[in-house]
Amino acid sequence: MPTGLAPAELIAVLAAVTDDQPRVMTLRGGEALPSGPFETSHRSLQQSLRAWIERQTGHPVGYLEQLYTFADKDRDPRSGELTEEAGRISISYLGLVREQDAAGIGRPAWYSWYSFFPWEDHRDRVPDELVEITDRLGVWAQDDPVRHQRVDYLFGVGDKAWNEELVLQRYELMYEAGLVDAPQFGRPMQGDNRRILATGISRLRAKIKYSPVVFELMPESFTLLQLQRTVEALSGLRLHKPNFRRQIDQQNLIEDTGEMSSGTGGRPARLFRFRTAILEARMLSGARLPLSRS
Amino acid sequence: MPTGLAPAELIAVLAAVTDDQPRVMTLRGGEALPSGPFETSHRSLQQSLRAWIERQTGHPVGYLEQLYTFADKDRDPRSGELTEEAGRISISYLGLVREQDAAGIGRPAWYSWYSFFPWEDHRDRVPDELVEITDRLGVWAQDDPVRHQRVDYLFGVGDKAWNEELVLQRYELMYEAGLVDAPQFGRPMQGDNRRILATGISRLRAKIKYSPVVFELMPESFTLLQLQRTVEALSGLRLHKPNFRRQIDQQNLIEDTGEMSSGTGGRPARLFRFRTAILEARMLSGARLPLSRS
DNA sequence: TCCGATGTACTCATTCCGAGTATAAACTGG
DNA sequence: CCAGTTTATACTCGGAATGAGTACATCGGA
């Protein structure tokens, strides 16, 4: 991004899925999210960011959504000092792209989410890191029942279920407990970038449940298993195959292309495509109010 | 708010429910949402806004959530001209308060949402305004099947169901079709304030389904019917009484105070209170992924 | 004392969801 | 070419949640 006197900074969480891994675009060897000043020459925030991303990656951004706006003083509660840029506004966005090969000068790299948040990947087993974290948080909560309740709820301790959407809240609790700087608990990032990434992951994990955004991450045509693997990568959970397929075709979101996948190891699978012009789509039923007739 | 050279402006959608009407705090005779510059003297955006609101209303804000951040050029697509303040950032918030009597100098007024969006109140009947709007939109869509699909989906035409959450998208479609300036379609506001209000209503209508924010609008103790009437006011829908009650006590969110309501016309009702220290609460079941065992 | 309004406890059918089973069709290594 | 592995796809079945409706209780007031 060209520099200049800018009233605001834009920060992007750019996500893609490849090799069954959810990935995020980073700069500086995985230490920073892409960011730059808001250019008033463009028409709007969205357009400004979209243009910059497409210049950087060589790919169009399928989906772009605003995440959160911070003031500088929101951003790093550790250092109480006032910087020269005090009062600057940072606006963060979540963007989804289909491919991850950057056209840049080799600087951008796509890291797996789970290298920053190793405790969030529950696809194969409960991560060792999570066990250690809950142990340490147990000590931190000690005789404080309120802390204990928060830890149990956020990290699925005891009979509580693991809720994959609470990425941000888990990170913030770990921050409070002083665990985020431990190197075994994920790759560090500069400033508050890891927290912004957590915000994006939380948002996306929630969104795939009631909106068909997953398809923004899929190629033109795909098999049902590929779709399932993508959802699993994003949510960090393993899904039940027959039930997943049932839900997908109940939603009526995809249609058969007529073609079959070339052998990926087993029996060839049908190739599907996303039904365009489906704007009324909701992935799952969505919450309901108990309506009255009439 | 004191004026000054500010990098950003804060705008608040302050909501309350009284007399079975969802209300929003306005200035200038209902023409503007409260707003002011972001004061860097405070610690963060949230705190800055919270302090200002409490000074204005004399009441604490129970719940405060960021809505959306606009650049000036996002804000009024009609006038293409560049103003002196081009590039200014506006950050909007949704706040919930329990009472609506302003301590101010008589300037703030609490108007019903539905005076700005008369077509959004479906509690008693389908509003006449909605019928006229869909008629006009039918003409606007004319021979364009894509437009027709959008209109049908957003406004519940034909066999499509009315979706109360789509307040913002409906308003934006009406804007596109040139209907928002018609005086019979709701009270006007200055600039894009009506669109920001629509954003807040959309967010709140979605939120009450999976989060216990409604209780931020309720008094200390309340009857089940009062709670139902509040949800109905917010959603603009009429709910099924027995099923509403079933859901509420399945969620285990409230507890009996032991007291009874003084006669409100019929048999006295139990008074309940919100169970504090319920952070794991979700109003409804929430969408689900088809999980796999172990 | 009856009526209207509200409060509260049920029933019943349908749909949705979690869990599991069974079979089909490819590839692989001996 | 046969056995075993991997993936694809079609079912079944029970339990939970949801939509819709019924029955009855208890108050104030005409």
Automatic annotation (TrEMBL), chains A, B:
Gene3D superfamilies: Nucleoside Triphosphate Pyrophosphohydrolase (3.90.79.10), Winged helix-like DNA-binding domain superfamily/Winged helix DNA-binding domain (1.10.10.10). InterPro entries: NMN_biosyn, NUDIX_hydrolase-like_dom_sf, WH-like_DNA-bd_sf, WH_DNA-bd_sf, WHD_NrtR. Residues 214-274 form the NrtR DNA-binding winged helix domain. It holds the Pfam family WHD_NrtR. It comes from the Bacteria. This is NrtR DNA-binding winged helix domain-containing protein. It comes from Falsiruegeria mediterranea M17.
